[in-house]
Design a protein that fits this description.
Bound molecules: protoporphyrin IX containing FE
Shape: globular
Largest sheet: 4 strands, mixed
Structural class: alpha+beta
Number of strands: 17
Helix content: 40-55%
Distance between the termini: 43 Å
Radius of gyration: 26 Å
Length: 587
C-alpha cells in the first residue's frame, strides 16, 4: 500500500518530540554492596554511595514516568483524533525495522495482523486486567460479603474465574437464537422504516433512531432489561416508566450505594444514557489528565448504581414469578434464573454438562456460587453494557460506509456494488436467493465496518516478562493497544485493503482448545470487529444480525442520499448525527 497522505502529521515525529521534551538521566548505578572491600572500615563512604544510588534511581524513575506519560499522551491524542491514520502509518513502516511500535518507555501499539492475532489469542501473555477496576463497581461490596466476586468475564483472564462464567453465559446467549434475533431485529428495522415512510419524503437522522432502537430492542426482549415509555406499565408490577422505586433490602445487604437513594424504572432515554455512561467510564476514561475525566467517572458511578438497582428489581420479580410456577419471558435474565434452579437440581445434569466442557468438575458448590443472584445481576449488567453502545456505533459506521460506496469513494469488485446491495435488500422470504442474499448483506455490513470501524484498538496489558512480538521484547506491565482496525487493512492478509469487496475469504478459524465454543460458527481472521480468541464478542450473532437487518431496512427505503457527514461528540468518541435524505425531497 502507498504511504498515507495525512492531514494530521506524522505519529512517529510526535513521539520523537515528546521524547526530546522528556530526557532521561543516565541509568542509575546499582545500590552498592556493603560487603564490598572498598567500604571496609569506611561506613560513611558506603552510606554516601548508597544514598547517591537511591537518589539517582528515584530521579530516573521520575524521569521515566514523565517520559511514559508524554509518550502515552501522544498515543492517546492520536487515538482520539486520527486512530486509523496512526495505525496506517505504523503499517507503512518497514516490517523488519519496526514490526511493532515499542518506545523505550511508554505503551506499545501493534497494527500488523499477525501481532494483533497473537495479542488477542495469547490471553496468558496479554490480559484484559486494565478493564477490571471499573467493572468491579457493578459487583457486590467485599466489605459486606468477603466472599463476593468482583469480576466480569471481560475483565479477567484468570482461568478459575473466567471459564465457568464463559460456559454459563455462552449457554444463555448462543447462535441457537439466530432465527429469533432475526425476527426481533427485522421487526424493529421495519417499524423504523414504516415511520420514515409515513413521514413522507425528507431527512432522517440515523443515530438517534435506527442505530439506537434495534440494540435497545435486543436488550429489552432478548437480554431481559426493557425500557417502557414514560408513564407506561413496566415489568416491575405497579411501576411505570420513569417511576422511582425503593432499593431492596436484599440488595442493600450486599451492595453499597454511594450516589442514589432510590431506583428508577428507565425510559429508553434513561437506559441508553446509563449504559453509555458506564461504557465510556469503563473503556474510554483512562486518562486522569483529561478535562472530562472526573465528570465521566462520576456519571459512570451514578449510572452503575441505577442499572444495578433496576436489574436486581427485575431479577427479584422474575424469580418470584418462576417460584410461583408462572410463565416469564424467555431472556438472558430468566435463562440464568432457570440455570440457577438447575444448579441445585438433584439430577446433577447441569453440573455434568459443565464438567464435560471444563474437562473437570467445578469445585464443590462453585456452580451455585456462579449462579447466585449477585452473579446473575452483575453478568446481566456486563452483557447489557456491551449490547448498546457498540451496536449503535457500528450501525452508524456501516451506514456511513455504504453511503461512501454509493458515492463511488471505494473501488469495488463485481458483485460488491451499492446497487447489488439494494437488490439483495429487496428480496422477500421465499424469493430465489433470499437466504444467500441475507448472508451477503451481512458481508456488506462487515466489509463496511472493516473500512470504517466503530473502534480501532482493544486494550491489553503484557502480563509476563520477556514476551516478544516480532522479535521485540515487551516489559511486564506495559499497556498494549491492539490495533485490530490496522490488522483488517494489513495488505499481507487483506489484498487491496481499501477496496470494498464482499467476496473476500474470511479466513475462518475454529476456536482452538475451547470445548465450550464447539457449537459456535468458526471465527473470522479477516473481520475482527467482534474481537478474536477468548474474549470474542458474546453477542456476535445478535450484533451481526442487527447490522444486517439495519442495512436491509435502510436500503429498502430506496436510493439514499447523504445530508451530513457522520458527526461525533466533543471527545471524538461517539456518533452524534448522520442525516440522510429519503424519498427524494427535503422534509
Ligand atoms: C456491532 C456490535 C458489537 C460489537 C462491534 C462488539 C464488539 C466486541 C468486541 C471487540 C469484544 C472483545 C473485547 C476485547 O477483546 O477486549 C466484545 C466482547 C464482548 N461483547 Fe460485544 N460487540 C457488539 C455487540 C454485543 C452485543 C449485542 C452483546 C450482548 C448480547 C455483546 C456482549 C459482549 C460481551 C459480554 C463481551 C465479552 C466476552 C468475553 O470476555 O468473553 N456485544 N464485543
Amino acid at each position: 500500500m502507498t504511504a498515507t497522505a495525512t492531514t494530521t502529521g506524522v505519529f512517529l515525529d510526535d513521539v520523537s518530540q515528546a521524547e526530546a521534551r522528556t530526557p532521561l538521566p543516565p541509568p542509575p548505578p546499582p545500590v552498592p554492596d556493603p560487603d564490598d572491600p572498598r567500604y571496609a572500615g569506611d561506613p560513611a563512604a558506603y552510606e554516601a554511595d548508597r544514598q547517591a544510588a537511591v537518589a539517582a534511581a528515584a530521579d530516573f524513575a521520575a524521569a521515566a514516568r514523565r517520559r511514559g506519560d508524554a509518550v502515552g499522551q501522544v498515543v492517546s491524542t492520536w487515538l482520539a483524533t486520527a486512530p486509523l491514520d496512526m495505525l496506517q502509518q505504523l503499517l507503512d513502516q518497514p516490517a523488519d525495522t519496526m514490526p511493532i511500535f515499542r518506545p523505550a518507555i511508554g505503551p506499545v501499539v501493534v497494527a500488523r495482523h499477525e501481532h494483533v492475532i497473537t495479542c488477542l489469542s495469547r490471553h496468558d501473555q496479554f490480559t484484559v486486567d486494565l478493564y477490571a477496576p471499573e467493572m468491579a463497581r457493578a459487583t457486590d461490596d467485599r466489605t459486606k460479603d468477603p466472599d463476593a466476586f468482583s469480576h466480569f468475564l471481560l475483565g479477567t483472564d484468570d482461568e478459575g474465574l473466567y471459564r465457568i462464567d464463559d460456559v454459563i453465559l455462552r449457554r444463555a446467549v448462543s447462535r441457537a437464537d439466530e432465527q429469533r434475533l432475526t425476527g426481533l431485529a427485522r421487526a424493529a428495522a421495519e417499524g423504523w422504516a414504516r415511520e420514515v415512510e409515513a413521514a413522507g419524503p425528507g431527512e432522517v437522522d440515523v443515530v438517534p433512531t435506527l442505530a439506537r432502537s434495534l440494540p435497545l430492542r435486543i436488550v429489552g426482549d432478548y437480554l431481559g432489561v426493557p425500557a417502557p415509555g414514560a408513564g407506561e406499565p413496566s415489568s416491575l408490577p405497579g411501576y411505570c416508566g420513569g417511576d422511582a422505586f425503593p432499593l431492596d433490602d436484599a440488595l442493600l445487604r450486599v451492595y453499597t450505594f454511594q450516589r442514589i437513594a432510590e431506583g428508577r424504572v428507565p425510559t429508553a432515554d434513561d437506559l441508553f444514557g446509563w449504559v453509555k455512561d458506564v461504557f465510556r467510564n469503563t473503556f474510554n476514561n483512562f486518562n486522569p489528565a483529561s478535562p472530562s475525566f472526573a465528570e465521566f467517572r462520576e456519571r459512570g458511578i451514578v449510572a452503575t448504581e441505577y442499572l444495578t438497582a433496576y436489574i436486581h428489581a427485575l431479577l427479584a420479580t422474575h424469580k418470584a414469578t418462576l417460584a410461583a410456577g408462572q410463565p416469564v419471558p424467555d431472556t438472558l435474565l430468566t435463562r440464568l434464573l432457570r440455570l440457577q434452579g438447575a444448579a441445585t437440581a438433584e439430577d446433577g445434569l447441569l453440573a455434568r454438562d459443565v464438567a464435560a466442557l471444563l474437562g473437570a468438575p467445578p469445585p464443590e458448590g462453585e456452580l451455585q456460587r456462579r449462579l447466585s443472584d449477585s452473579m446473575i445481576r452483575s453478568n446481566v449488567f456486563g452483557v447489557v453494557v456491551g449490547a448498546v453502545v457498540n451496536p449503535q456505533e457500528a450501525t452508524c459506521r456501516v451506514v456511513d460506509s455504504v453511503l461512501r460506496l454509493a458515492s463511488g469513494e471505494y473501488g469495488t469488485r463485481p458483485g460488491s456494488s451499492y446497487d447489488d446491495a439494494v437488490g439483495l435488500a429487496a428480496l422477500e422470504p421465499g424469493d430465489p436467493g433470499y437466504d444467500a442474499g441475507l448472508r451477503r448483506l451481512r458481508s456488506y455490513a462487515l466489509e463496511g465496518l472493516r473500512l470504517r470501524p466503530q473502534g480501532e484498538v482493544l486494550l491489553r496489558v503484557c502480563s509476563v516478562e520477556g514476551v516478544e512480538l516480532g522479535g521485540v521484547p515487551i516489559r511486564r506491565g506495559t499497556p498494549v493497544f491492539v490495533g485490530y482496525a490496522g490488522a483488517m487493512r494489513d495488505p499481507r492478509v487483506t489484498p487491496d485493503p481499501l477496496v470494498f469487496d464482499v467476496t473476500r475469504d474470511e479466513l475462518l478459524d475454529d476456536h482452538p482448545q475451547m470445548t465450550e465454543r464447539a457449537d459456535e460458527t468458526p471465527q473470522s481472521r479477516l473481520y475482527l470487529q467482534h474481537g478474536y480468541g477468548r474474549h470474542k464478542c458474546l453477542g456476535r450473532y445478535a450484533s451481526e444480525i442487527t447490522l444486517q437487518e439495519s442495512l436491509r431496512g435502510l436500503l429498502r427505503l430506496g436510493r439514499l442520499e447523504r445530508r451530513s457527514e457522520l458527526e461525533l461528540d466533543e471527545q471524538n468518541l461517539y456518533a452524534r448525527s448522520l442525516r440522510i435524505a429519503v424519498g427524494g425531497t427535503a422534509r
